[in-house]
Amino acid sequence: MTQEPLVTHIYTADPSAHVFEGRIYVYPSHDRETDIQFNDNGDQYDMVDYHVLSLSQVGGPVTDHGIALQADNVPWVSKQLWAPDAATKNGKYYLYFPARDKQGIFRIGVAVSAVPAGPFLPDPEPIPGSYSIDPASFVDDGDGQAYLYFGGLWGGQLQCWSTEHGADCGTESKSESEGERERETRFDASKAGPQEPKGVDKPALLPRVAKLSEDMHSFASSVLEIEILDPETGKLLAADDHNRRFFEAAWMHKYRGKYYFSYSTGDTHYVVYAIGESPLGPFTYAGRILEPVLGWTTHHSIVEFGGRWWLFYHDCTLSRGVDHLRSVKMREIVYDEQGKISLKEKQ
Ligand code: FUB
After folding, report:
1. 337: Cβ–Cβ under 8 A, 6 or more apart, which residues?
2. For residues 138 and 12, what is the distance between their CA atoms, to the nearest angstrom?
3. pLDDT at residue 19, rounded to an integer
4. Which of 1, 6, 95, 333 supports an S-S bond with 111, CB 3.0-4.6 Å?
5. What is the pLDDT of residue 347?
6. Tell me: the pLDDT tens digits for 301-331?
C-alpha cells in the first residue's frame, strides 16, 4: 500500500514531507510532459507550478489541495520550478522554491501563507544571496533557529558558484572556522552544465547552508559549506567518490539529538546520509538509505509521524521509466541502536 504512488492523477516528485497541524503535508515538484529534448542539464524538467498534498493517516486518502503557487505569478522567475520545501514559524507557513531567474540563473524564492496548503504569496525578488537548487528548511526544536540547506550539481549550477578548494583531498575538517567556509558569490557561466571537479585527491563540491532570519524571508548568516567527512579518514569526501559525494536533494532531520544530513548522489542514484552533532556540521558519512529507483533522479525527505519514521521518495514506475515524469511514494524506515537507518523490510 505504502509503495504505490500517493497520487496518480498528476506526476509528482522531490517530496518534502512535514507534519503540520496533525497531518502529513507533502510539498512536491509537479512534473509535466514537455517536448524538450532530454539532456544532462535537466532542461526537460520544465515545471510551472506546485500542488500541495496531505494525508491524515498512512495508507489513507491523499488530498491534492490544488495549485499552491505558479511561475507566472512570481515576478523574478523565468522557468523551471524545481524541488520545493516548506517550514512553519510565527504561525505562518513558508514555501521555499528554486527556479531560474530572467538571466537563467537558479535562485531560491520564498512565498508565504496562513495555512499549510497555501496558496502562497511570493516575495517579488528571490532571497538575496541565494543560488542553486533544492532548498530544504529545518527549524531546530532546541533553540527555534531555522536553516536553509541547498545546492545541486550539473543543471543545478552549484559548480558555477564554487571556487575549488586549493588544498587537496587531504584537507581536514575546518569547521571550527566558519569564516573559512563562506563561499564565493560570483556566477561562473563557463562551469554551467554537467561538470564538476574530478580527482581522487580533490575534494567534492559541498552543499550549502544559511541561517534564516526570524521573519523567514532572508538569510541571517553567510552561506556556509557543509562538510561531509569520510568515517575512515576524517577527511572530506573526494570528487571522484561518486557513490558518496553530495549531488543534490539535501534534507535535514534530527533523531535522538543528532543531526542527519541526507542527499542524493546524482549520477550513481543513491540516497545516502551523514550524521553530525550540529546543524552546521561537520557530518560524517554513515551509509545508504535507498538504492537506485526507476528513473535517473532520486530525491527524498524523512519525517516522524505516529511514532514511526517515514521516507518519502519518488520513482518513474507510473510513467514506465520516463525520467521527468515521476511519482511520490512513501516507505517506513527504522533505526538500529547505533542510530543507523534502514528501510523497514516488510511494509
Ligand atoms: O525536479 C527537478 C530536479 O530533479 C530536482 O531539483 C532534483 O533534486 C531532481 O530530483
Report:
1. none
2. 22
3. 98
4. 95
5. 65
6. 999 999 999 999 999 999 999 999 999 999 9
Distance of alpha carbon 138 from alpha carbon 22, whole angstroms: 18
In a domain, 173, yes or no: no
Phi/psi class of residue 217: alpha, beta or left (left: φ > 0; alpha: ψ in -120 to 50)? Answer: alpha
pTM: 0.95
Taking the centre of ligand 1 as the mean of its atom positions, its distance from the CA of residue 14, in whole angstroms, is 6
139: CA distance to ligand 1 center in Å? 23
For 326, phi then psi, to 5°, come to: -110, 165
Model confidence band, residue 165 (pLDDT cutoffs 50, 70, 90): low
Judge contact between 330 and 311, C-beta under 8 A.
Answer: yes
* The total number of structural domains that make up the chain: 1
Range of the domain at 246: 12-165+183-343
Contact 185, 161 (CB under 8 A): yes
User: Tell me, what CATH number does 134's domain have?
Assistant: 2.115.10.20
Tell me if 170 is assigned to some domain.
Answer: no
Per-residue pLDDT, averaged over 46-60, amounts to 98
Asked if the structure places residue 177 within a domain, the reply is: no
Q: Is the CB of 13 under 6 A from ligand 1?
A: yes
Cβ–ligand 1 distance for 248 under 6 Å, the answer yes
**Active-site annotation, residues:** 14, 248
pLDDT at 167 over 50: no
